[in-house]
Amino acid sequence: MNDAPQDLREQALTALTAARQRTAGLTDCVDADDLTAQHSPLMSPLVWDLAHIGNMEELWLLRNVAGHDPMHPEIDPLYDAFEHPRAERPTLPLLPPDEARRYTAEVRGKVFDVLEKTPFEGSDLLDAGFAFGMIAQHEQQHDETMLITHQLRRGAAVLTAPDPDPPAGPPPAAREALVPAGPFMMGTSAEPWSLDNERPAHEREVAAYWIDTAPVTNADYQRFIADGGYTTRRWWAPEGWEQIRRHGIGAPLFWWSEGGQWLRRRFGVTEPVPAAEPVLHVSWYEADAYARWAGRRLPTEAEWEKAARHDPATGGSRRYPWGDEDPTPEHANLGQRHLRPAPAGSYARGASPLGVRQLIGDVWEWTASDFTGYPGFRAFPYREYSEVFFGPAHKVLRGGSFAVDAVACRGTFRNWDLPVRRQIFAGFRTVRDA
Fold it and tell me: What is the pTM for the complete model shown?
């Protein structure tokens, strides 16, 4: 990211504008009843996400950065994500759709004035326009959340996008790649808009291992199912076995078998499960069980990041597998350009130096690691972004998905969730010791 203040200001403007265009697309495509309905107890009504986006923007950019008085202090508790769990948000006196749109538009109009006048220096919140980058990332993260709600929503399809192109260039040279033993620099202290859990950069020693050059596919996963994967207890962690028994789980979420064929529902469309795509909508427990069945394991977070960032030729760590330049459509499937993963083995131009593909985009990838802070971690600008989630309850996911925007996805970016979660756009790849 260029350090020239005007370039950073333009990047912030572009990121904020792109996020709002995506928010509008996800909320304008349905009527008021759809916006206020709760399509799953796991998710908020879409109208809650819409107003929450505006409320967070007001809180950080208008109040904290610009020192403005609260516009509507009475609504702050309604849109505090920690005060009300998702299941109870439909019972709150939320802003109706038109009022939520007016509120977020009014906030954004004031933010553009603040963006033009605010110095990008003088505090951690202002340096390199961090506060503006944080809010752009926050909105894009909620856009992904709203896309998950669209996937859970019943009814006719309302979202469309072209399918990814067939893979260009030769397929990966092998099914797995050897990552040599040795140290690498994990995390970042230099990425201007990196979030607190990505910091600071620190050296990690990692033993040699073999990693899949592409994510596990639907065809791979169907072999696990056919071999009794969901009925064989020894593949499962005890909590995972209890979960699938209690809920009668026998396939990824949104899959069912009919006439000897696996089908799935994808954004309101019923279709055969595509064999070549990375498997999607599996929990950490399902990913872990598959890996055990395959005689392999899930990568640790450090192993995942070393495969994605380490350059054996220089010993340095890249921003992305392909280098330091920002992603393009030739590198990765990001930004909701498509509403599905690309076939496994796509994006040869996005490969790491060791030939590992699709480490960025397509599907979030479960890792074996619990979500914790790095050595020297400092919560910033608020504990509730990362620190309150640290511990064994949450597993780390890396790499982003087709639903993630590039502003909220880089080689150091960390996501986390409960290991039972299946509605998220998550898949995985496996490793084995060398």
Answer: 0.96
